[in-house]
TrEMBL record:
SUPFAM superfamilies: Protein kinase-like (PK-like). Residues 8-17 have a biased composition (Basic residues). One of its GO terms (cellular component) is nucleus. It comes from Centaurea solstitialis (yellow star-thistle). This is dual-specificity kinase. One of its GO terms (molecular function) is protein serine/threonine kinase activity. Residues 1-35 are annotated as: Disordered. Keywords: ATP-binding, Kinase, Nucleotide-binding, Serine/threonine-protein kinase, Transferase.
Amino acid sequence: MAEEKGGQHQHTRKRRRLTWDVAASPAEQQEAEVRQQPVLCRHISPPKREDDREGHYTYSLGENLTPRYKILSKMGEGTFGRVLECWDRQNREYVAIKVIRSIRKYRDAAMIEVDVLQQLAKNDKGRSRCVQILNWFDYRNHICIVFEKLGPSLFDYLKRNKYCPFPVDLVREIGRQLLESVAYMHSLCLIHTDLKPENILLVSPEYLKLPGYKRTSQGEAYFRCLPKSSEIKLIDFGSTAYDNQNHSSIVSTRHYRAPEVILGLGWSYPCDMWSVGCILVELCSGEALFQTHENLEHLAMMERVLGPLPEHMVRRANRGAEKYFRRLRLNWPEGAVSRESIRAVRKLDRLKNMISQYVPVGGSRSCIVDLLHGLLEFDPAERMTARQALDHPFFRNIPA
């Protein structure tokens, strides 16, 4: 496959051997020696190596990923594969390349992501706030997707700052942009399904170092880092679903998973909106709203923070979720797997009280609490849409 989609002819019987899979010829070796330059500078691919046992591409820093891209560093790793920082010799710029594991299901997901990214780019009028795809190719059985290089994720900032909350004005700016991106996707009948702080990147890596409000046991002030620019972009479209297609029962990361997904009621646009609500709470408080690893505990946490689940949703729960209820009520704490699980639920507070610990008294507090209740509405039919949320007073900085 060539470096752009559709590079093969329909009647080709045998796959043409790619130039970047070819070792340096003796003439090229001799020329490199005369010039006293390593063969790598001739943009030759490294020797072929076996993938590791998990299907990850094996590489060394300084090598080429095709003759065009030089590998500079590893930027991240996930279940899908690895993200490498590379130098693009053709356009003379730094890029991030997502190198997918050579496993069928991840390759299939990568091709879905390429299709979604191309659709997002095709319809973009400059306000999508979605990461831009620059290129893609298949290299030694690894789908490689080339992106513009961005800064750290929101989760990276939370972790670096020892999970201190973001200032409410920064939450407002990030929230507005996130909703603009989600609204854009929904206008194209696309559901992201995996919105979380790890998938929201700052455009710039530049930051300010400011004293934090916490102090060490020795009385020294913590410092926290805040981005110089609040501009963000959304990434990771590998699990994006079209609104009219059948969705797998579970896709999203658990902490940000909507109640209707747990109950087996299907996927729709409101699933993304629930995730946005969870993200905004996390940015305000510094901690994930629902830190859980089990469905019944997750539902119990939701009820603890937001009140009881609507009976009509419980009645419609699929067979897999019926076991979480008795007589249309959540089987809690009777069904808890441990006392530790019960304690984890009990330590949670109502949403309003939770936000009040972190957002100063005034219009911003009442505004954001009202917004969050709209985003974290149990009933998907009653939950705010992205466009409705963008019209909320919180984003106009007008006290409710």
